Amino acid sequence: MKFDKASTGNEGLDQAINYLRIGDNVVWQVDRLEDYMEYANAYVRNSLAENRNVIYMRFAVHEPIVKDNDAIKIYTLDPSIGFESFTIEVHRIIEKEGLEAFYVFDCLSNLLESWATDLMIGNFFQVTCPYLFQMETIAYFGIIRGNHSFETIARIRETTQLLLDLYNIEETRYIHPLKVWNRYSTTMFLPHIETKKELVPVTSSAESARLFSFLPQTGLGNSKRNLDYWDKLFMEAEEVLDKEPRDSNKEKAMVEQFCKLIIGKEKKVLDLAKRYFDLEDILAIKSRLIGSGFIGGKTVGMLLARQVLKKDTQSQWQDLLEEHDSFYIGSDVFYTYLVQNGWWHLRQKQRTQEGYFEAGAILEQNMKEGVFPETVKEQFMQMLEYYGQSPIIVRSSSLLEDSFGNAFAGKYESVFCVNQGSPLERYKQFEEAVRSVYVSSMNQHALEYRRKRGLDQRDEQMAILVQRVSGDYYKKYFFPFLAGVGFSYNSYVWNEQINPKEGMIRLVLGLGTKAVDRVEGDYPRVASLDQPMLQPIGNDEDMKKYSQHTVDVLNLVENAFQNVSLNQLMWEKPGLKMDLIGVLDHETNKRIKAYNIKEQEAWLLNYEKLFKETDFIPIMKNMLQQLEKAYTYPVDVEFTVNYIGEDRLKINLVQCRPLQTKGVIGEVEVPQDIDKESVVLSTKGHFMGGSIDQVIKRIIYIEPKAYSALSTQEKYGLSQFIGKLNQKIKDKESMPVMLVAPGRIGSSSPSLGLPINFSQISNMSILCETAYEIMGMVPDLSYGSHFFQDLVEADIFYIAVFPNHKHTIFNNNYFENATNELIDIIPEASKYEKVLKVIDTRNDFIIKGDLKAQNLIGYTSSR
Fold first, then answer.
1. C-alpha angle with apex 245: 239 to 249, nearest 5 degrees?
2. Could you say which of 179, 562, 686, 712 is the most buried, measured as most Cβ atoms within 10 Å of its Cβ?
């Protein structure tokens, strides 16, 4: 039955506040939980007497607020699952119970034990209170006075309908209504003293003075009152460190507590953190933390790796490593950004099956325009004042990122801020970069990745790592001398002399973007750490073609990230140690001289002197081995290399994460006596993913010549149909499929290969890139790039075929003569029947490859 008013169960309180109203959220601020319990139980007794639907939300470790009663529905919740999951569960219950329900919540202050931050309690109340109001409920909440910052209390006051201060002074209780929405009387906002029968307004100056003389002890006069509970925890840690003698057991316990609050939830990572971080390290992290909450996987990996090397007393890492200079934006800031911009309902919808992509797309657009709380903006400004005009990079560091099993390689944004201009201009650039990272948490590729890996219902909070860009000024440019990625295990060996356990690196001149991305027409230097001079491409002509031709830099004059040609950079004579990483390109220099171009010289980057005459390779090898030993798991790292003075090498370790690898399935005997007519493809090296012995049931083949004749639009259309074929693969085990395509699969340039995104090939078992050099379509041996990390995580085997190379066979006739099943599977794809062929092998196509011998063969068999 619809009602407008309800009783609190206390006649005096009813008179003081003019009864409860539909939609009221009532917050009791108390010194003792027992006082909240008494008023909550009076409200419950009266509600049950009126046959109301009474619900008790039980989530704290304190004594139950409501006495046992079979007529009350009790929901037991676990706040340790995190703010988002906890809040979604509360809202689910509210939706289930429907209109006109009466609620009692445990003391909100106890959520601090799990969340440790007032910010998230404020967020919880700010999104839950309006929903309760919308559902026409009445709800009671308790908070402990003095446990929360002024800012949190202000947010609660702003959101709730009633805020009541309840004091217990010398066994006399006073109730002081601070906010009573939509009601007023001449005495309503005076303190009221509780008597046996009523609440009497305190009107005399003597009684008021007695009451308010108590307030400075716990209220305005207490300097700690303005601090977040989060800050109080860290103040306590500082006090522990200042005490002599130091209590090692207490320090250890505090490290464990803080690791759960800022490092994460994954047991393997927590165990490593507790092993390598001490209390001073934790406080050092806090000193550079903006907001509160978790610092995210990327930040944890970077800090943890540095601690591992720092504790390695056998090597001089203190002299070799460049100190990091980073700040961290806590994950709570991300949630607060959503809550205070009014998008929490979208976030909830996005966590449902039906709204996963649809609400995600709306959030992706909305987050581009949001505003940050003033307290956060002030911290942003202070950080930017610290960096001055030094370039910085704003990097994603989500909770699930860089963890054991989920790398999220390239799924979220990293944004360079060249950081030039006025303070206001630099601030706007930075704030936009933070928004871009937040927005990337909702991009379709990230959402598909999470769903594919069963992470779509996991909390994915976005923390951010802000790093000073490692490098130096080279005239108008800023960049590191070298940058790259390193792997302690080499899944991508290309020669039988290489030991995969020795690791590998991808190295570039300039910013490291080219080391992690597949870049059209540009190739990082790939080196196995046991055979660094042994390159994947054999002859001199290939080495020149498959080398780095452009350099990523930050242009300080243009205030922009730029990609400049190596020749242009050399023309500007930036003062690089070119003789250490390259040799003069004599053939090109002859042409330059013939055109009478002065003060210009061309270089070919081969890194021969760096590898042969410096300690760089042994240093990288040692670093990766030490990190793998600590992780008891292969790792991959991102790093930069700079030189101070003439010969002092400094390495900046900017990222470390567990490396997902495809293991060798054991020795595979590659048959040597197969009839040549049965061989479809054969190659020496140029495959990745361990050894393989696989029966292929379906081949998706793109005819190179017909593909090259398509328009750009038609090539994109072709990719859509391949995506549909990919969707029809329900189980890779029962339906292994190989995609054979000319040039680069996943190319951003349709003229160089297939413009397809990873989600459209994610169910394939094998990708085979074939060279069609007459049209410029050549496989991209981007060992270790984000693209190939995706292949490893999706358990996709990779083959590159160069038909004109020695030791390579590619039988075009097999593909051309095979029956095309495309129209039977996708009738609407008839336009592409001459380009796209779907071959049912009838279990008569086998791929065998031996990692150690670097032999691979695909052949037909009459099994």
1. 75
2. 686
Provide the 8-state DSSP code for 646.
Answer: T
Strands (E), 566-717: 582-584, 603-605, 635-644, 648-658, 679-684, 687-688, 692-695, 698-702
Structure tokens that stand for 744 in this block: 């680069």
Of 393, 680, 684, 687, nearest to 554 by C-alpha is 393
Beta-ladder partners of 698: 737, 840
Lookup: tokens for 361: 């797309």
Task: Name the helix (H) or strand (E) containing 678.
Answer: none
505-508 contacts at long range (C-beta below 8 A, 24 or more positions apart): 505/529, 505/620, 506/783, 506/784, 506/785, 507/482, 507/483, 507/607, 508/482, 508/483, 508/484, 508/548, 508/551, 508/552
pTM of the complete model: 0.86
Strand boundaries in 774-854, DSSP class E: 797-801, 809-810, 836-840, 845-850
Q: Are 419 and 391 in contact (CB under 8 A)?
A: yes
State how far the Cα of 773 lies from the Cα of 779, in Å rounded to an integer: 10
Distance from C-alpha of 12 to C-alpha of 406, rounded to nearest angstrom: 59
Please measure the distance between the N-terminal and C-terminal CA atoms of the chain and give it in whole angstroms. Answer: 75
Neighbours of 722 (CB within 10 A): 24
Amino acid at residue number 558? E
- Residues 438, 462 contacting (CB under 8 angstroms): yes
For residue 110, the 8-state DSSP code is G
CB 743 within 8 A of CB 754: yes
Q: Which residues contact 555 (CB under 8 A, 6 or more apart)?
A: 418, 476, 477, 561, 562
| pLDDT < 70: residue spans in the chain | 1-3, 205-226, 537-542, 599, 661-666, 773-776, 780-785, 862-863
CA dist 759 and 449 (Å) reads 8
Cβ burial, residue 36 (10 Å; 0-12/13-18/19+) = buried
* CA pair distance 510, 154, nearest whole angstrom: 49
Distance of alpha carbon 710 from alpha carbon 704, whole angstroms: 10
- Cα–Cα distance, 417 to 481 (Å, whole number): 19
* Residue 382, SS3 per DSSP: helix
Residue 398's alpha-carbon distances to 274, 281, 294, 411, 439, in angstroms, are: 20, 21, 9, 11, 12
Q: If phi over 0 gives left and psi between -120 and 50 gives alpha, with beta otherwise, what is residue 243? A: beta
Nearest residue to 375 via CA among 148, 218, 152, 127: 152
pLDDT of residue 220: 44
Per DSSP, the residues of 849-863 read: EETTTTEEEEEE---
Pairwise CA distance, residues 670 & 672, whole Å: 6
Instruction: Tell me the pairing of strands 766-770 and 797-801.
Output: parallel
3-state secondary structure of 361: helix
Structure token pair of residue 715: 């090539």
Q: What is the pLDDT of residues 304-320, one digit of tens each?
A: 999 999 998 888 898 99
How far apart, in whole angstroms, are the C-alpha atoms of residue 462 and residue 10?
Answer: 46
- Measured CA to CA, the distance from residue 24 to residue 181 in angstroms comes to 8
Determine the Cα–Cα distance for residues 547 and 852; give it in Å rounded to an integer: 26
Nearest Cα to 653, choosing from 404, 501, 470, 814? 470
Q: Which residues contact 802 (CB under 8 A, 6 or more apart)?
A: 683, 686, 771, 778, 779, 808
Q: Could you read off the pLDDT of 576-593 as tens digits, one per residue?
A: 999 999 998 888 888 877
Instruction: Say how many residues make up the chain.
Output: 863
Instruction: Please count the other Cβ atoms lying within 10 Å of the Cβ belonging to residue 45.
Output: 15
Written as six digits, the tokens of 313 are: 């007393």
